[in-house]
Prior knowledge:
By secondary structure, the protein is of the alpha/beta class. Helix content is 42%, strand content 21%.
Amino acid sequence: MEIKSILWPTDLSEKAAEALPLVTSLSEKYQAEIHLVYVVEDIGRFGAWYGDFDYSHIEKLQEIERKKAEQELESICSNHLKGCPLYIRHIATGDPASEILKAIDDEKPDLVILATQGRQGRFGFGGVAEKVIRHSPAPVLSVPVKAV
């Protein structure tokens, strides 16, 4: 199997970061580009809010999260991926599993590497990881995370 590109979905949690050494190692070994994917969850899709809540507030919160994610992804790239030939950052808004699968369809990576749990995971396998593994057209390597 030739690996020219790797897609690494991350929610920027410590659990998701447990996949980073493998992402870095394989990228360096195969001189593969890395696509880092972060998804700002669309909190507006959860339905009605109590009281009068303007949707512009949700957009402001999501913009703050997007800017923070950009900073964190830049930090990861400059501090951990220096030996990698190319890294590309993707930030999307929506359902995390759906957006990751969309990124896989768009970028057509040779390999997807993700942690079995992210920041929301408390019990075994995470829901986003399960959906990605079940529906990904690309091979997915799952990295188990340490129990909390």
